[in-house]
Specification:
Helices cover about 55% and strands about 0% of the residues. It is an all-alpha fold. Helix 2 runs antiparallel to helix 3.
Length: about 110
């Protein structure tokens, strides 16, 4: 159930409401349960670290392949930079979603 909510970018509390209005713009509150997504200033800083892990996980297989084939630094740039640029919006989006769901599991919210 929760995995489905993560994949669909749904609210971590009710698992129904949409977290994002557009792919890169978050709603302030859930339309279904009215939970405020950002608990405090700097709340989404932890999602930055989750984003780092996601980026490394996405780029590491490419880097290992290039390393195994003795690729030059130019090939690293040509392969890794465009991949990172293409994945950055999805990493931003899902890092925030994952952080919301992890935080909800660790510290459940009460409806206001």
């Amino acid at each position: 159930m929760r995995l489905n909510a993560i994949l669909k970018s749904h609210c971590p509390h009710c698992l129904e409401g949409e977290v994002f209005d557009t792919f890169m713009k978050m709603n302030e509150t859930c339309a279904v349960c009215d939970i405020k997504f950002e608990r405090e200033d700097g709340y989404f800083m932890m999602s930055v670290f989750i984003g780092y892990v996601m980026a490394v996980a996405a780029l590491l297989p490419i880097a290992i392949y290039l390393y195994a084939n003795n690729a030059s630094a130019t090939w690293y740039l040509l392969a890794l930079l465009p991949t990172l640029l293409l994945l950055s919006p999805a990493i931003f989006h899902y890092a925030r979603i994952l952080w919301l769901h992890i935080d909800e599991l660790l510290d459940p919210r009460r409806q206001e």
